């Protein structure tokens, strides 16, 4: 725990951080990659180029300064970040590099306002926070590597099957090269993959899209449009174009807190686009357990982009526990309402009220930002308890809680 003096100074700097937080984090990342280009192997450079990572870090720093004397308020955020770091195999040494860079950026942006006293206080505060992360991440590493099939860092897997799920999404079935079997994981978790690029490696997180307990791990990747001189689409295009059966892939450990929670309440799964992947893992696990009623609602553009359609229909035909509903916002001429899809347009409060007999259920949702904004707004309008609402969103919280656009 930071000293009383440090807590006072850090809290006093809160208004300044609120004003300059994104300038500080943008400066930090610029300097970081100039001084340590090897870290480009770890960070998602798309999120660097579009400024998303800087916004996320800025929010994290601001909230830390606000709650430095109430660290229990940050426990959820700490666990989410620690899980992300564990998937990337972040080491304690990297915290030293980041800490030095962050203090340097504060000095550069604030100038003379960044007095030695302020820098000293933030150095102590950062050291305490880094210690919390290092301790938690080490525990995650230790817990996982002793499990059957577990490991630390990255492990080589072979692609044993490549299967097209839609015009944009393809699944890759992976088995460990050492033949030791696949590890257990929680439905909804993700893994990181690292592939070599021309200038540096590229690391991305992809949800595991099938239930645990199989002799393979499955990821299902949407092909993103490639942009010249921009990191977007580099990894997804590589998988779609270059990766075939027999290809070798380096995987990080399964991580993430957006997981299926135990219980006996009915479950509502709401997915938009490629957001279906973690929910497919949850759906398959729930159907295998065969105990809870499941409402599965998926929103897609049309049948061309609708992944896992036949699989979900088959599950629905086989089990009276599953009730499936499909939303298309731009159905093709061949798409038939009542056969290929159930509703045209966006998921709405009116439709949810007509489908669900009660809101006393566990809700899980994942998809693009506008989809998630819409669903979160609807669930709150319906009066769903916050403890029954589960999602994972990579981005500033303000974006998710913004009023969804109707345009």
Automatic annotation (TrEMBL):
<keyword id="KW-0560">Oxidoreductase</keyword>
<dbReference type="GO" id="GO:0046872">
    <property type="term" value="F:metal ion binding"/>
</dbReference>
<keyword id="KW-0479">Metal-binding</keyword>
<dbReference type="InterPro" id="IPR023950">
    <property type="entry name" value="Hmp"/>
</dbReference>
<feature type="domain" description="FAD-binding FR-type">
    <location>
        <begin position="152"/>
        <end position="261"/>
    </location>
</feature>
<keyword id="KW-0813">Transport</keyword>
<dbReference type="GO" id="GO:0046210">
    <property type="term" value="P:nitric oxide catabolic process"/>
</dbReference>
<dbReference type="GO" id="GO:0019825">
    <property type="term" value="F:oxygen binding"/>
</dbReference>
<comment type="similarity">
    <text>Belongs to the globin family. Two-domain flavohemoproteins subfamily.</text>
</comment>
<feature type="site" description="Influences the redox potential of the prosthetic heme and FAD groups">
    <location>
        <position position="392"/>
    </location>
</feature>
<dbReference type="InterPro" id="IPR012292">
    <property type="entry name" value="Globin/Proto"/>
</dbReference>
<feature type="region of interest" description="Reductase">
    <location>
        <begin position="149"/>
        <end position="407"/>
    </location>
</feature>
<dbReference type="InterPro" id="IPR008333">
    <property type="entry name" value="Cbr1-like_FAD-bd_dom"/>
</dbReference>
<dbReference type="GO" id="GO:0071949">
    <property type="term" value="F:FAD binding"/>
</dbReference>
<dbReference type="GO" id="GO:0020037">
    <property type="term" value="F:heme binding"/>
</dbReference>
<feature type="binding site" description="proximal binding residue">
    <location>
        <position position="85"/>
    </location>
    <ligand>
        <name>heme b</name>
    </ligand>
</feature>
<protein>
    <recommendedName>
        <fullName>Flavohemoprotein</fullName>
        <ecNumber>1.14.12.17</ecNumber>
    </recommendedName>
</protein>
<comment type="similarity">
    <text>In the C-terminal section; belongs to the flavoprotein pyridine nucleotide cytochrome reductase family.</text>
</comment>
<keyword id="KW-0349">Heme</keyword>
<feature type="binding site">
    <location>
        <position position="190"/>
    </location>
    <ligand>
        <name>FAD</name>
    </ligand>
</feature>
<feature type="site" description="Influences the redox potential of the prosthetic heme and FAD groups">
    <location>
        <position position="84"/>
    </location>
</feature>
<keyword id="KW-0561">Oxygen transport</keyword>
<feature type="domain" description="Globin">
    <location>
        <begin position="1"/>
        <end position="138"/>
    </location>
</feature>
<keyword id="KW-0520">NAD</keyword>
<dbReference type="InterPro" id="IPR039261">
    <property type="entry name" value="FNR_nucleotide-bd"/>
</dbReference>
<dbReference type="InterPro" id="IPR001709">
    <property type="entry name" value="Flavoprot_Pyr_Nucl_cyt_Rdtase"/>
</dbReference>
<dbReference type="InterPro" id="IPR017927">
    <property type="entry name" value="FAD-bd_FR_type"/>
</dbReference>
<dbReference type="InterPro" id="IPR000971">
    <property type="entry name" value="Globin"/>
</dbReference>
<feature type="binding site">
    <location>
        <begin position="393"/>
        <end position="396"/>
    </location>
    <ligand>
        <name>FAD</name>
    </ligand>
</feature>
<keyword id="KW-0521">NADP</keyword>
<dbReference type="Pfam" id="PF00175">
    <property type="entry name" value="NAD_binding_1"/>
</dbReference>
<feature type="active site" description="Charge relay system">
    <location>
        <position position="137"/>
    </location>
</feature>
<feature type="site" description="Involved in heme-bound ligand stabilization and O-O bond activation">
    <location>
        <position position="29"/>
    </location>
</feature>
<feature type="active site" description="Charge relay system">
    <location>
        <position position="95"/>
    </location>
</feature>
<dbReference type="InterPro" id="IPR017938">
    <property type="entry name" value="Riboflavin_synthase-like_b-brl"/>
</dbReference>
<keyword id="KW-0408">Iron</keyword>
<dbReference type="Pfam" id="PF00970">
    <property type="entry name" value="FAD_binding_6"/>
</dbReference>
<dbReference type="InterPro" id="IPR009050">
    <property type="entry name" value="Globin-like_sf"/>
</dbReference>
<keyword id="KW-0285">Flavoprotein</keyword>
<feature type="binding site">
    <location>
        <begin position="204"/>
        <end position="207"/>
    </location>
    <ligand>
        <name>FAD</name>
    </ligand>
</feature>
<dbReference type="GO" id="GO:0008941">
    <property type="term" value="F:nitric oxide dioxygenase NAD(P)H activity"/>
</dbReference>
<feature type="binding site">
    <location>
        <begin position="273"/>
        <end position="278"/>
    </location>
    <ligand>
        <name>NADP(+)</name>
    </ligand>
</feature>
């Amino acid at each position: 725990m930071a000293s009383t003096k440090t807590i006072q100074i850090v809290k006093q700097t809160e208004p300044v951080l609120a004003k300059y937080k994104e300038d500080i984090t943008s400066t930090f990342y610029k300097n970081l990659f100039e001084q340590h280009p090897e870290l480009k192997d770890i960070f998602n450079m798309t999120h660097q180029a579009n400024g998303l990572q800087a916004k996320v870090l800025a929010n994290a720093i601001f909230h830390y300064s606000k709650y430095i004397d109430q660290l229990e308020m940050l426990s959820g955020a700490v666990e989410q970040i620690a899980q992300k770091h564990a998937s990337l195999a972040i080491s304690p040494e990297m915290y030293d590099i980041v800490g030095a860079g962050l203090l340097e950026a504060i000095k550069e942006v604030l100038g003379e306002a960044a007095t030695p006293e302020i820098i000293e206080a933030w150095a102590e505060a950062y050291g305490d926070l880094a210690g919390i992360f290092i301790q938690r991440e080490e525990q995650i590493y230790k817990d996982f590597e002793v499990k059957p099939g577990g490991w630390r860092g990255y492990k080589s897997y072979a692609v044993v099957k490549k299967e097209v799920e839609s015009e944009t999404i393809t699944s890759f079935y992976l088995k460990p090269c050492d033949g030791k079997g696949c590890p257990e994981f929680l439905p909804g978790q993700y893994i990181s993959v690292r592939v070599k690029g021309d200038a540096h490696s590229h690391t991305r997180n992809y949800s595991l899209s099938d239930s645990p307990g199989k002799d393979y791990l499955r990821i299902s990747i949407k092909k993103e449009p490639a942009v010249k001189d921009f990191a977007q689409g580099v990894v997804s295009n590589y998988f779609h174009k270059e990766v075939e059966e027999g290809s070798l892939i380096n995987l990080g450990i399964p991580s993430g807190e957006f997981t299926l929670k135990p219980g006996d309440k009915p479950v509502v799964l709401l997915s938009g686009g490629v957001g279906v992947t973690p929910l497919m893992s949850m759906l398959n696990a729930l159907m295998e357990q065969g105990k809870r009623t499941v409402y599965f609602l998926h929103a897609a553009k049309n049948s061309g982009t609708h992944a896992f359609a036949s699989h979900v229909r088959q599950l629905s035909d086989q089990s009276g526990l599953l009730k499936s509903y499909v939303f298309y916002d731009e159905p093709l001429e061949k798409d038939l309402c009542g056969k290929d899809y159930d509703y045209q347009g966006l998921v709405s409060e009116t439709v949810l009220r007509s489908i669900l007999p009660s809101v006393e259920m566990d809700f899980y949702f994942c998809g693009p930002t506008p989809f998630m904004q819409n669903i979160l707004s609807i669930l709150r309008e319906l009066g769903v308890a916050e403890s029954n609402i589960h999602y994972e969103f990579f981005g500033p919280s303000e974006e998710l809680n913004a009023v969804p656009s109707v345009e």
